[in-house]
Amino acid sequence: MADLYDLGDKPPLGEVPKRMHAFAVRQSRFGQPRDAWKREVLPTPTIGPDEVLIYVMASGINYNNVWAALGQPLDVIAERLKMGEPEDFHAGGSDCSGIVWAAGKDVKNVKVGDEVIVHSGWWRPDDPWVLSGKDPMLAESTRIWGYQTNYGSYCQFARAQGHQCIAKPKTLTWEAAGCFLLCASTAYRMLMGWEPHTVEKGDVVLVWGATGGLGSLALEIVRAQGGRAVAVVSDDAKKKFCLDHGAVGVINRSQFDHWGVMPDTKDGKAYGNWAKGARGFGKAIWDALGERISPRIVFEHPGEATLPTSEFVCGTGGMIVICAGTTGYNVTLDLRYHWMRQKRFQGSHLSNDQQALAVTKLVDAGKVDPCLSQTYRFDELPECHQLMLDNKHPYGNMAVLVNAPKAGLGAS
Amino acid sequence: MKALAFQEHGGLDKLRYQDVADPAIGAGDVLVRVRAVALNHLDLFVREGLPGLTLPLPFWTGCDIAGDVAQVGAAVRDVNVGDRVAVNPNLSCGRCEYCGRGEHSMCVKYGILGEHTHGGLAEYVKVDARHVLPLPAGIRYEDAAAFILVNMTAWRMLVTQARLRAAEDLLILGVGGGVSSTAVQIGKLCGARVWVTSSSDDKLERARALGADECINYVKEDWVKVIGQRTGRRGVDVILENVGAATWKGAIRSVAKGGRIVTCGATSGPIAETDIRLVFWKQLSIIGSTMSNDAEFGAVMGQLFAGRLRAIVDTVMPLRDGVEAQRRLADGKQFGKIVLTP
Hints:
Largest sheet of chain A: 7 strands, mixed
Oligomer: heterodimer
CATH superfamily of the largest domain in chain A: Medium-chain alcohol dehydrogenases, catalytic domain
Largest interface: A-B, 38 and 34 residues
Low-confidence stretches of chain B: none
Radius of gyration of chain B: 20 Å
CATH class of the largest domain in chain A: Alpha Beta
Structural class of chain B: alpha/beta
Order of helices and strands of chain B: EEEHEEEHEEEHEHEHEHEHEEHEHEHE
C-alpha cells in the first residue's frame, strides 16, 4: 500500500495510508480565505475507540470556515493548542459525504464500507451531561466538528465520531449529499426543536436571508412541515429561487431603510421613522400572505440589522429563533413588545443526532431539497470561501469534490 | 359610593377620595362590595396615563380585589348575594383564537379590570360573574386581595413559561417587588434553589424568611461575579427578570447554557442591550410573559387556599388614605403588597 494516494484513487477498503491531501489554515496565513486556505499533505489522523475515518467523496462549504480563515472571531488553532492538542494547523470542513474507511472498537452504528453523511455536532462521549441522556447540544464539551475540531471534511480522510454518521440518502449524488446537513440540521432544530414553537400546518414563518444555505433549507423544511414561509431577500432577482424552494411569498428588504440598531425611544422623530419602517415591513408580510396574519416563528440569523424588526413583527405568543448574527451581535431589544405580546427569543445552535437524522429522512423522502447550488473542484475550495465572505456565492449550498472524480456520481 | 379617583391623569395630587356614581351591572355581572384591594405599579402607571389608553373620567383603578357579592345580574346562576369572593382581573373576549386556546392574557382585546374598566379602589365594583372565585372560610379578604395579581404573574412566569423544576437554580432580580417576592415562595414550592438580589439587607432578610437560599446585596457585591463564583461559572437555570435595562446584560451573562430568562416588566427601562452571541451559543430562551390565563389563576389561588403559598402583605390602610399608600408604593418602601380597605 502506498504512503499517499491521489484524490480519487482508492486504497484497499479499510487500509489507511500514512499521509493524505487536505486543505488547511495556519496562523501565519490568517486573513482573506483565498490566501488562508492552502492545499497541503498532512499525516492521516489516528482514531479513538468512538471515532471513524471517512474517505471523503464531497464536502460542503460553510461560513464557519470563513471565520477559521480570518482567525476571527475565534482563533480555533490557538484554542485547541491551549487544550493540549498538538496540531498547529486547522484542517476544517463541517459537511461531507463519504465512505467509512476505519472504525474504532466502540462504534456500533456504522461499519467499514458504509456510505454516510456526517453531521457536525461533536461532544465528548464521557461528558456527564451526555451520559445522563440530556440534549448533548447543551453539554459543556460540545464543539462544531470541522471548525472547533480538526481533520474535518476538507481532508481526504476526515475524522469524526461514530454517532455523527447517518446513512447517505441513496438517490443523491455525492456532492448533493455532502453539501446540506450543517445548514439543514441547524434549520431543523430552529424550526422543530423548541416546543411548543414547532412548525405546524398553516403556521406562518418569516425566513430572513432566504437564498443562503440556511435560509433555503428553512424554506424547504417549513414547506415539508405544512407551514407557510415568507422569504426575505435583498434583491428581486432572488424571488424566483425562493418560490421554487417553498416560499409562499417574498419580500425585498431593500425597499425599507430602517435596519440596524433601534433608535432611542426618547428620540421621537428617529424612533417614529423606525416604527414606520417596521410597521411597513409587517404590512409587507401580510401582503405576501394575502391575509393579516403575523409570523408564529421568525427564523433569524442576520441579527443586529434585522432583530428589532423581527421582535416587532413576530405574532403574539410567537418565537424569534436565532442561530447567528451575520450583520453584527449588538442588539437592542424593546422588552415591551416581548412581555406585552408574550413573545419568546430563542437561541439555537447546530443540532443533536436525532434532529440531524430527522431532517436527513425528509431529504431521503424527497420532501426537502438539499439546495445544492454549484459543485466545484477541490482546488477551488479557497475561492468558495472567498465568494462566501464577499457575499457573491450562488444561492443555496456549494459543494467541492474531494475523492469523487467528477460531479454526478454516487446516486443510485 | 366613595372611590379613590382622578379627574385627569397626572401625579399623586390628582387623586381624590371622592363620591362617584355607583356601578350599574348587566345581566351577566355581579356587584362586589370591596373589602380589600391591593395596589400595583399598574395603579400608578394608569393614573399617570399610558399611551393609547383612553379612559372614562373620573376613573379609578384597582385590580386586586376581594369582597362580598352584593347584587347579581338576572342571568347569573351560580353566584349568590353574600358570597365571599376573589376577583379574576382578566378581561378577555372569549372568542378570538387565543381565548379559544385558553390563553386569555394573549386575547386580541385583552384588558385588566381596574386598568381598562373601573376598578376596585372604591366601595363597589362590577365584575363578570364568571370571574369571581369563592373564598374558603379561613381566607382573609386582605390576604386574597394581596395575593391575586402578583401570583398569577409569577406562577405563569415560573411554572408555565420557564418550566422551573426541582433542584434548578432560580435567580430573582430585585426581590422587593410584589412579583419578585412571591416568586421566592413559588420557586421553593417547585423545589428550586432560590437566589435573590436587592440593595437592601432588610429586604434580603425578608426574602430569606420566605425561603431564599442565596441572598446578594448588589450594592455591596457584584452580583454577576458572585453568581459566577458560587455556581462554578455555570450560571443559574432560570432568571425572573423585571428590572430591565439595568440588569439585562448581567442576566444574559449569569444564565446557564439552555437557561431561561422570563421577563414581565422593566422598572429601570425596557430597552435591553443584548449580545446575541450569548443567546445563540448558550441557546437561551428569553420569554415575555404577562398576567396569566384563567386556568393559571385558578391553579395559583388553589395554592393559597391549600396553604402552600401565602400572601405577602406589607401594610393594610383605609382606602381614604390611598394617596399615602400610593406614595409608599412609588417610593419603593414596601416589601410585599399594600392593601386598602374601603
